[in-house]
Amino acid sequence: MNIxxxxxxxxxxxxxxxxDLEGGSLxxxxxxxxxxxxxxxxxxxxxxxxxxxxxxxxxxxxVLRGLKFHGYHGVKPxxxxxxxKFLIDVDAWMDLRASGNxxxxxxxxxxxxxxxxxxxxxxxxxxxxxxxxxQLIASRILSKYPPISAVRVQVGKPHVAVHGPVDYLGVEIxxxxxxxxxx
Length: 183
Description:
Residues 1-18 form the signal peptide. The chain is α+β, with helices and mostly antiparallel strands.
């Protein structure tokens, strides 16, 4: 099933978003800025498609899981004074064929460089919201590394005062270079 969302405004007067759904699950997301007729007609040609985000998120990626930091982010005074543990996951989508073929670090982005960005944000100036922390991490990664086309950042708090057992509570954002890059 295809869902079409046409957005008309002064900035992007011919924006069309085509969403492919199957059984309620997102299969693909296409963004068109002009000549979207073929994509909208469903003829498979996707003429005018600017970005195929579904395909982008199915490609190669660098993966950083279970990064642990002590930081002072949060709204409550005790979070700012005592700090707390945070768990971070990062996926960075980029083409890894060159490094896969060459076996050279110079043909990719080092995990430790991305880790360094996360560490700098997590152990740096405090933010009230995890959304702000995740956004800053994503923005810095996309700004520093042009080969990365999209980044997913998950920030979790494992020790949250709720009435029930949890592994963690947090946020997850996905940012795309061509529409979300912000410094």
